[in-house]
Design goal:
homodimer, 246 residues, alpha/beta, Rossmann fold, two-stranded antiparallel ribbon, 12 helices, coenzyme a biosynthesis (chains A, B), ATP-binding (chains A, B), 4-phosphopantoate--beta-alanine ligase (chains A, B), ATP binding (chains A, B), nucleotide-binding (chains A, B)
């Protein structure tokens, strides 16, 4: 069965699509071993969450959209799993909010960097950043610290899908507004985020895009109100309750 | 850092050892892609369980040991993740209870079968089964149904570490006593087991061996009492509570 043949109303639709894209990611040299293990961790948390977008995650997606629209220079950071799972969806989000896409890998090799940039371009991206690597995030090991001077180094709002607790903490220390997508509400990435979106990336990215399109004509005070009313701690507590209570 | 250098009292000891062995498993062609994803799912459940053996899992390990000692022909089924994670521990358990080790893979290839059998022999196993594949489990797809006529097909008690819900159900339908090690108490494997051990395989296998050595001189009525008093449903409920309540 190819992905296009999976019926949209199949009860395991997201899970089957995910499996297909992860396999393709491995074939293309995009998905790493650690990426496969991280994928499994995500599956378990999503299973406990009921494989749905809970109300608090939807509110977080709306706050994320407002932050991205308010930003002077929003950047969407892309790692191997994000590129494998939602390449077209990341491009659509970047278009909707005028953000740059920048590739950043936990296990950085030039080969994987190029494969991921090409994969994003195959899905419509123009001007993928991350390959220049002419700036550094302070207080992080060398390879993981590499960013583009005109990308994440210059951004005021950064969306970081999926995990790397150290990097999430280092970006937060730089005073950037950080939006994190992570299915584990107890993770360090989720805890340091200004906006933690506890949801499957397959649902979260299109949902942020939908909110951004709805808010495209909203005035600045409206966006600032949405951002100001968002409570990251209450959001994490609601997500943890949903996971624990089933 | 090589595995021997990880201090036994390191707070993340099990997690670091696991990471090392999974990596080595990939290098040796033992661990599959699906195995890496399954490893991640296990990590998430173990995290929620507090990365410890809960009392109900210890009671299950004791009942598992009693079943294995009472058996006429106990067999320990070994898949890629089990072989990568606890090769020496599986050999020690098989020795302690007089069980056969039989390799059975969800994604069976002759190459992986041989790599896993060799890995077990490197860790002291003699007479690894699974390569003859001269019998079938009814009601299962061809490759996953393959077993040895003088191994699992002939066994009265089978220990199945880690997941494959369909295979666990088919073995249970054959009327064999089935011991399952699975960190997800809601999984089908755990639910069809006579003895579900909801614990990390890294802790569960040595723990079953310890109980088996303690019970080595116990008489039959004592072993039968331990087996008779074990309640799989209460065990699963306790594990689910531990995961949900944190």
């Amino acid at each position: 069965m190819v992905e296009a043949e999976i019926p949209a109303d199949h009860p395991r639709h997201d899970s089957l699509v995910t499996r297909h894209r992860v396999e393709a990611g491995v074939e293309k040299g995009i998905t790493s071993r650690q990426g496969l293990i991280a994928q499994g961790r995500g599956e378990a948390f999503d299973y406990l969450l009921g494989e749905r977008t809970i109300p608090s995650a939807d509110a977080a997606a709306r706050a994320a959209a407002a932050h991205l629209l308010l930003a002077d220079h929003p950047v969407v950071s892309v790692n191997g799993n994000a590129a494998a799972l939602v390449p077209a969806e990341l491009v659509a989000l970047a278009d909707a909010v005028g953000a740059d896409l920048e590739v950043n890998l936990f296990n950085r090799t030039e080969e994987r960097m190029r494969a991921i940039a090409e994969h994003l371009r195959d899905h419509g991206a123009t001007g993928v950043k991350g390959l220049a690597a002419d700036a550094r995030i302070p207080n992080l090991a060398h390879e993981r610290a590499k960013v583009d001077a005109d990308g994440i180094a210059d951004a005021d709002v950064v969306l970081v899908p999926l995990e790397d607790g150290d990097r999430a903490a280092a970006l937060s220390d730089l005073g950037k507004v950080e939006i994190v997508i992570d299915l584990n509400p107890m993770s360090r990435s989720a805890r340091v985020a200004d906006v933690p979106v506890v949801d499957n990336i397959l649902r979260a990215i299109p949902n942020i895009t939908t909110h951004a399109r709805e808010l495209a004509d909203a005035d600045r005070p409206t966006l600032e109100r949405i951002v100001g009313e968002f409570d990251p701690e209450a959001t994490l507590a609601a997500a943890e309750r949903a996971i624990r209570d089933g």
